[in-house]
Hints:
Elements lengths: L3 H7 L5 H13 L4 E6 L2 E6 L2 E8 L6 E5 L10 E2 L7 E4 L8 H14 L2
Antiparallel strand pairs: 1-2, 2-3, 3-4, 4-6, 5-6
Organism: Pedobacter soli
Protein name: YdhG-like domain-containing protein
InterPro entries: YdhG-like
Amino acid sequence: MLNPLDNYFEQKDEPVKSCLQYLRSLLTGYADITEHWKYGMPFYYHKGKMFCYLWVHKKLHQPYIGLVDGKHIEHEDLLQEKRARMKILLINHLEDIPKRKIETILAQAFALRQ
């Protein structure tokens, strides 16, 4: 039987599933990032503090990275919507994943933790 984290990714349909799995591997590739099952979703902690999470937008049906301290990050592709603290980066699962853009935004988020 799969743990809740693995089950979350396995239950998604393609191509959303592959996109989320890629984002998962990208995030867990950072040295100080740990993966947890929190609030019914995959959450990623940086040095023991909540950092970001992966989810699929309910209306747009696109995967996204939700950044916990997103309100402090200025980037044209980050959306705040009705969130007070967090911003999200939508990922178009039908196109190539913008790895450099993601890494740039994550670098800004890491810099807030210094």
